[in-house]
């Protein structure tokens, strides 16, 4: 039904390419383009249907526009890095192509992600008659859809949302990040922030934590309050929301390494003079750490990511839990990736599929919770991320 162009051939790009290639009825043609073509070729060699590859620097807007005009895909699935978002949106507008990503724009020189830069594209996408969908990963993405689904089917009003992200897996490495180390460490070392009574409350990085008992045998784990991008769009699009928080599990080992790296300055993102050159310590650290894609065969265990929601239905208080559990080894058997890349790449493919089939339509820039959650929830069950819900 549609030709798509996937940009980015990292851990997530590999999953998106595999999952799109499993649905030739929807994704009739796939172009996989990234900065390093060899990575695209290595992924393509393993796919069940032929996929063409291309070299592209997505920050070079004229060249990317020319590629998109030549290839004429219906949609770009952007799974490069957040730094490329605005450049890829510019090229999509210039070439008349729809757009979807999994992470919101972040300026390279400031560790601060916000939707304002991408929301500012709404009018231009609307005028061009094109659709841009932001944040179709797991969190943001599935978690945003979980909230929209809860509001549609289980609540008259939602008061509180706690998004809880647990990786109970183990890769056996002394220290590694499950997705791009630079993006991951920038996110984790930032100040915490949550939505309360119409305003943002800031906390010191990872200062607030508690023990949470996860379902299905995962058991108690320490969860840490962080700022995460879907809080910004949920605060805007879920009416009556009084509190929204995001929590993530970290092992003591991960936190100890991170503390030492921070103390010695290795997580700095400003350039530092070194032997006649300038280097950014965090970028150098990324070069030393294991490539997240290499963790696939090593990672054992499960992830559990979901939303714990409170509100009212028919004048009575209600609690609702909805989550997915995903096993690292099963992901690797299917697409040669660990569950963090899998739980991001599958929702990107599902969102793209709904745009290609026309089940999701619109002109402008949309966050996931603005769109009909039902077909997305259906496809999570069909394509590898089944969910469980409990009304309490
Ligand atoms: P990786 O670092 O593994 O992959 C990024 C890919 O983008 C690499 O292939 C890289 O090329 C390519 N790339 C970088 N810069 C450019 C450029 N200028 N032009 C073209 N290609 C470029 O990252 P991940 O796969 O782990 O993450 C991908 C995205 O998914 C990130 O934005 C991340 O924030 C997001 N994410 C979202 C999650 C969610 O749940 N919503 C969870 C996890 C990740 P090269 O190979 O040459 O370096």
Task: Tell me what the structure shows.
It is a single chain. By secondary structure, the protein is α/β, with parallel strands linked by helices. The protein has two domains: 2-137 and 344-375, Rossmann fold, CATH 3.40.50.720; 142-339 and 385-391, 2-Layer Sandwich (Dihydrodipicolinate Reductase, domain 2), CATH 3.30.360.10. It has 14 helices and 18 strands. It has helices at 11-21, 37-44, 61-71, 85-95, 116-119, 122-128, 142-153, 181-188, 230-237, 252-263, 281-288, 328-335, 339-357, 373-382, and strands at residues 2-7, 27-34, 52-55, 75-78, 98-101, 131-134, 157-167, 192-196, 199-203, 209-214, 219-226, 243-249, 272-274, 277-279, 302-313, 316-327, 364-367, 387-391. The strands form three sheets. Strands 7, 8, 9, 10, 11, 12, 15, 16 and 18 form a nine-stranded mixed β-sheet that branches. It has a seven-stranded parallel β-sheet with strand order 3-2-1-4-5-6-17, with helices on both faces. Helix 1 links the parallel strand 1 (2-7) and strand 2 (27-34). Helix 1 (11-21) crosses helix 13 (339-357). The longest helix has 19 residues, at 339-357. The protein is globular and about 55 Å long. The mean pLDDT is 96. The structure holds NADPH dihydro-nicotinamide-adenine-dinucleotide phosphate. Residues 7-13, 34-36, 39, 56-59, 79-82, 84, 102-103, 137-141, 179-180, 183, 292-293, 344 line the site of NADPH dihydro-nicotinamide-adenine-dinucleotide phosphate. NADPH dihydro-nicotinamide-adenine-dinucleotide phosphate binds at residues 7-13, 34-36, 39, 56-59, 79-82, 84, 102-103, 137-141, 179-180, 183, 292-293, 344.
